[in-house]
Amino acid sequence: MAYHLQMPPTSGPLHLRKEARRELGEAIERMSRDTGYKFGPRGWAYYAEGLGLITKGEFDRFEKLLADMRKEGDLDPDVIEPDASRMATEVEDFDASPNTPEQMAQYAVNEISERLREWAGIFHTRGYWDDLEYYVEMIVEKKDLVQIFRSIADEYNIRITNGKGDTDIHTRLALLKRFRDRSEAGRRCILLAIGDHDPKGLHIVEGLHRTIMSCCNIKGLDWDYPDFEVVNIGLTETQIDDLGLMKIGNLETGGGRDLSDPRHPDHNKPYVQDYLAQFGVWKCEANALVGNPRGAKDLLESAINRFIPASHPGDVEQENEPGQEEVRQEIARLVQGWTFE
Questions:
Q1: Which of 39, 142, 179, 272 could disulfide-link 189, Cβ–Cβ 3.0 to 4.6 Å?
Q2: Sheet harboring 160-162: ordered strands across?
Q3: d(CA 329, CA 334)
Q4: Going by C-beta distance under 8 Å and a sequence separation of 6 or more, which residues neighbour residue 53?
């Protein structure tokens, strides 16, 4: 589904500017409602850049526009992901119960029934990775990409790590420990990687194996011969063309400076020069995939199916169902008179 986002004018009759802001708010709300995506202001700015509405140098202005639209009622605040670092702490607050003791007891019994059913559901005679040759995880460059790929990754039991550009030490160590355990269990470890098609994005993915391996001697890892493969699954120029994603005709970075400009401090870095020689002056933000959820799902699933058969999740679930039914029957025997209705 296409979402027609247009930037409101910054000059002209006030009523026309207000109407344009209202239309932009409605388009963002419709997209969020249809896809379930709730990006932070920066994430929506990346998406707007991917549509060619703004440049990277205009991110701050766009983020302020979203803030003003929320304050003035032109945009539902719930389509913007809250900043977790600014959230209030939770406390055990409570009010007087509106229920009678009998009603509360019945509620507890209903809850117990649901919990017992869940306990039966976590009994497995066959582990998810037991008969697979590979163990697979995924890493993305920005947190908004987690939302885009989460549903299909969950279907295949694949963890997604938000690398936030270059991963930090704790992220690398946690990844290496999981790979160590799966490798020692006899599986080949695969890290699917996807990011922006721009000089920095491709450079991050290209150097990801080296970046992670820089932590292989950290105390507590105890993995003598780390062995895993990083598989770059996008974005490629072919994918961008096939999915109809916009190629942005600049290489602007923060502050509005362009990597193609010899005056940019990173212009002469080898990875920038290699990109310019191979692709020229254009880029594509991976956030643009928000406008094509089906294409994003197919992109990831086709990569996953190189290592995990499409039928595998269903096969494992079906094989585990008889054992789970036995657990339910045993619970019913132990808790006399209990039935799962």
A1: 179
A2: 160-162, 134-140, 188-194, 229-234
A3: 9
A4: 5, 6, 7, 62
The yes-or-no verdict on residue 112 having pLDDT over 70 is yes
Question: Are 327 and 123 a contacting pair, CB within 8 Å?
Answer: yes
User: What are 251-297's pLDDT values in tens digits?
Assistant: 999 878 999 999 999 999 999 999 999 999 999 988 888 878 889 99
Instruction: Confirm if 124 and 326 have CB atoms less than 8 A apart.
Output: no
Predicted local confidence at residue 341, as pLDDT: 60
Output the pTM of the full model: 0.87
Comparing C-alpha atoms, which of 175, 248, 249, 250 is closest to residue 218? 175
Helices (H) and strands (E) in the chain, counts: 12, 4
Element (H, E) at 121: helix 101-121
Which residue's structure tokens are 């913007």?
A: 80
The SS3 assignment for 284 reads strand
Q: Give 230-262 pLDDT, tens digit per residue.
A: 999 999 999 999 999 989 999 999 878 999 999
Cα 189 from Cα 193, distance rounded (Å): 13
| Residue with token string 């005679």 | 125
For residues 296 and 286, give the distance between their C-alpha atoms in angstroms, rounded to a whole number: 10
As a whole number of angstroms, the distance between CA 175 and CA 228 comes to 11
Long-range pairs of 236-242 with CB within 8 A, sequence gap ≥ 24 = 236/197, 237/197, 237/279, 239/299, 240/197, 240/284, 242/295
- Whole-Å CA distances, 121 to 10, 116, 129, 154, 319: 56, 9, 17, 17, 12
